[in-house]
Automatic annotation (TrEMBL), chains A, B:
Organism (species): Actinotalea ferrariae CF5-4
Domain (HTH lacI-type) ranges: 6-61
Sample GO molecular function, one term: DNA-binding transcription factor activity
PANTHER family in the record: LACI-RELATED TRANSCRIPTIONAL REPRESSOR, TRANSCRIPTIONAL REGULATORY PROTEIN
Keywords: DNA-binding, Transcription, Transcription regulation
Protein name in UniProt: LacI family transcriptional regulator
Length: 357, 357
DNA sequence: GGTCTGTCTCGAATCGATTCGATGCGGTGA
DNA sequence: TCACCGCATCGAATCGATTCGAGACAGACC
């Protein structure tokens, strides 16, 4: 007591009341005379007691006040994508409303021990977990959380789980974009895709690779195009949703003469699309005169000015907030349904009819 | 016991041992027969017991295994800056090594109640806190943490505190950049600065505003230029370290004819510099022929290609890691000194001698 | 005066683990 | 044979709070 921080018991004895009364003075859950309360608070002030220790409180209540946000990648890679940031921002806001803090866990899969899981996933205190990025259908993280009995919300990830999923209507949005390109008259459409899985290869996709496709947004956005009858001349898998990766993929996709190369490139994210724009510029191609470029996400990319990207707008922050609210419902004992947000095609200046032959 | 999750006591009684022995089987801190241990683990497996409850463990050990990372802004604003992301990435990595999780707290100052503090800062369980962004010298967050007795490491922030600070040598780096410009022959140098404080105005800085300058990197980078004799023709404060803000400030700074406008613009971050480049392009100015532009941070900005920004490179991830290690030393009871990283001038293609008159 | 009601306070149990000191036991050396 | 030692195990205290049921007391009413 001399050295360590004061406890509620110290405060109580200083104030001349019992521990339970002192507890009441802080929590306010129960009848207490105003005068007594003031005496307790004064004693606390005097001792430099700064409120009930959260650890003791947690143990008793069984709740830690923490929601884990688990990401299957390095932060420096995932969070260079403004998409992730905005979702996270909405999520922390909504969780904050619930009184929950956000424990950030970058749960990198270890290629050498694929079933191993970050120790924090295994043992950190958490009332719920949100998987927002980069998980496989059979991800061990999911298994560990289930074993621990932690309620889980899945942001972007496998849909074949027992956890509720908050996602966007990738497929419909992609289909709308596809129709837009068809109406403009495009026949040779190339796709620069998001990664297929954690392997993060970069290169053209063949049938074998296509069969491995495990990442939900990638698959749905591809299906959307195909659903309106577009057969991509090539699907070029990018290493990550980053400008640099889009540029690299763009350079490979846009090779060839006017008769061979695609007249339109659909990138599966705005950052990839920005990279493709840069690649086109480097190759001396005019957008949209020589080639049309479209993205996905609806980011605000001022440095593309004066170009305005044709893209599919998704509600990023709202998606994060919805994930947060779903955590709340899970904790309230409900069994929420999956949730799908609508998206909207926004036509900019980067798509136009294909060049005449 | 029927409904709730099994506890160590359940496992112990199932295995036919005492609770303390069962604890030993999991923690491994103490002698235990291999055979007994196996029996305990088997019982745990049978009951679906997934390891000791972190809350109980925490209460006993007095440690939560959590380090708070506190940011004085919305995530969607701070984290759109790759600088913040890379620092955070290094930080989480280093804290992970220590077995600490990262509790992310966006502690937005409430303009109506400036002394109020996010409830999580007030009451979340944490073994240490790292303030990485956007704090004033007399920030109430710091006061609350001190009252709670939480060890604090300051990333970018007030240097006049009792907490150790991990920073970079802004001033020397800025001075090197200043000398580079002087050697090229520049006389009219404008500055596009980082925000001065949380107020986030955007506009030219007058003496009164200059006196309010409370944000360490802004001040030091300004001092560095002045220390080599550069008197900026104007200091234009930007709203945030973002491309769009840099563009806006750049448009205002680059007004005027060849004889009036600055021949060089020093932006206090690479994102701001990128915005200035865009502004110059929009105004029909060639870089570096008509105007030189320099930044700070040393980011990888592929979409500026073929330009390569002249900038001051700072070790972002290493800085984050150092902050993490400093937390470790604080927890070990040491009293670490402040830490300052060196930076390095990297000359790119965006600076050249001023145009002849 | 006695009883009842309502308000305030208290003691003790509880949350789930860790840890320290004690105990029992088989084996060794004198 | 006895004292002693080390290993494995156990019991009980402990961490810091919350909460429930019980008790004390004052005022109101019959």
């Amino acid at each position: 007591m001399a050295h360590s921080r004061p406890t509620l018991a110290d405060v109580a004895s200083t104030a001349g009341v019992s521990v339970s009364t002192a507890s009441l003075a802080f929590s306010g859950s129960g009848p207490i005379a105003e005068e007594t309360r003031a005496r307790v608070l004064a004693a606390a002030e005097r001792l430099g007691y700064s409120g009930p220790n959260p650890l003791g409180r947690s143990l008793r209540s069984g709740r830690s006040g923490i929601a884990a946000v688990i990401i299957g990648d390095h932060l420096r890679r995932s969070f260079r994508d403004p998409v992730a940031i905005q979702v996270l921002d909405g999520l922390t806001g909504a969780l904050g409303q619930l009184g929950l803090g956000v424990l950030l866990i970058p749960a990198l899969p270890d290629p050498e021990r694929p079933t191993a899981v970050d120790p924090l996933v295994e043992s950190a205190a958490m009332d719920a977990a949100v998987l927002i990025w980069g998980f496989r259908t059979d991800d061990p993280v999911l298994a560990v959380l289930r074993r621990r009995g932690v309620p889980v919300v899945v942001g972007e990830g496998p849909s074949t789980t027992t956890a509720p999923v908050v996602s966007i209507d990738d497929q419909t949005g992609s289909a709308a974009l596809g129709r837009h390109l068809l109406e403009l008259g495009h026949e040779r459409v190339a796709v620069v895709s998001l990664p297929f899985d954690a392997a993060r290869r970069c290169g053209p996709v063949d049938a074998a690779r296509r069969a491995q496709l495990d990442w939900a947004p990638t698959r749905h956005r591809l299906l959307g195009l195909e659903s309106v009858g577009i057969r991509p001349t090539v699907v070029m898998e990018a290493e990550a949703s980053l400008v640099e990766a889009g540029r690299e993929a763009g350079l490979r996709v846009l090779q060839g003469g006017p008769g061979e190369r695609p007249t339109a490139v659909v990138a599966q994210s705005d950052l990839l699309a920005a990279g493709v724009l840069i690649a086109a510029r480097e190759l001396g191609l005019r957008v949209p005169d020589d080639v049309s470029v479209a993205g996905f996400d609806g980011l605000d990319l001022p440095w593309l000015a004066p170009d305005v990207l044709t893209t599919v707008v998704q509600p990023l922050q709202a998606r994060g907030e919805a994930m947060g609210r779903m955590v709340g419902r899970l904790l309230a004992g409900e069994e929420p349904e999956d949730m799908v947000f609508d998206v909207e095609l926004r036509v900019g200046t980067t798509t136009a009819p294909p060049p005449p032959r």
